[in-house]
Amino acid sequence: MNIKANASIPAVGTTLYKEVQREVLRALAAGEWKPGTAIPAEKKLCEMFSVSIGTLRKAIDELVAENILIRHQGRGTFVAQHNRAQQMFRFFNFTDHAGNKTYPQLSLISYAKRRVDKVAAEKLHLSASDKAIAFTNLLYLEEQPVIVDDIVLPEPLFASLTEEQIRNRPNTLYNLYQTDFGISIIRTEERLRAGTAQPRYAELLGIKPGAPILEVRRVAFSYDDKPVEWRISYVNTDKHEYAVPTAQ
Which of 24, 58, 79 is the last residue in one of the domains? Predict the structure, then answer.
């Protein structure tokens, strides 16, 4: 463990629990606590950070609320893992018009390594000379094509990623990022636009060119607010819609 007790948490002048959060996130980003493993016990963390139990719990409570950490009653607090269930309820925001959510079936349409385009470079904080991995997935809901995802990843972070890994992954894409590359998605930012289907997307979705569609632009972030994925989803909303659960 590379965290040093009281190494970067000031005694005055800032909110202590936020500094504790930052130290925990630095440890997660450095891979000191792996997904699915328990973090140290509260007493040990209090000693490491030289803070009270109240301060520590406030920091950990917020990380649990953000699904970065998960508490298991009687077992401790664990680093969250991306799995099929978590992906469904946290990062997949599409339902039928009755509000029912089903897990999509995916088909990989294309895969390429190329120079990053201007928009992706801006979103991923890359330079124009950097390379990217770009691929397109077609998502089926209830056996009907509903969503086309154009996804761009920074090639330096995913240099060994292959077409076969994407096509044959046993779990979610974010699970693949985490298990094979040590990159955990902890939050996303999305913007929605009304659009019309260009011929390529219309053909994939089985609709007429120019038909209305929903466009969802997403940047996915890892620890330290590092952008690691840029995607645009093109959605046929004839029988499905975008729905975000109400915060509790």
Answer: 79
Question: On the CB side of 127, how many CA atoms lie within 13 Å of its CA?
Answer: 3
Q: What does pLDDT average to over the chain?
A: 89
Output 179 or 213, whichever has higher pLDDT: 213
Does pLDDT of 221 surpass 50? yes
Rounded CA separation 121/185 (Å): 19
- Bridge partners of 232, per DSSP, are 150, 217
Count of domains in the chain?
2
DSSP SS3 for 170: coil
65 and 144 share one domain: no
Cα–Cα distance for residue pair 202/188, rounded to 1 Å: 26
pTM over the 0.85 mark:
no
Residue pair 3/32 in contact (Cβ under 8 Å)? The answer is yes
